[in-house]
Amino acid sequence: MVSKLVTRIAGIFIIISVLLGMYVNPNFYWFTLFVGANLLQSTFTNWCLLGDILRKLGVKD
Length: 61
What we know:
The protein has helices at residues 2-23, 29-45, 49-56. It is an all-alpha fold and 61 residues long.
């Protein structure tokens, strides 16, 4: 459950930040880069900050 939720939230963050970058301020693209970099590093380290936060909030695996 946590991994599905992480990918959903990451997808939502990416979509929102791209739209904000297009229509509000291009600096929002840095947030898109941050989300993508965290997704990439989690494939190498098997650790995800958002996953840890969701587990502490009580979301079951």
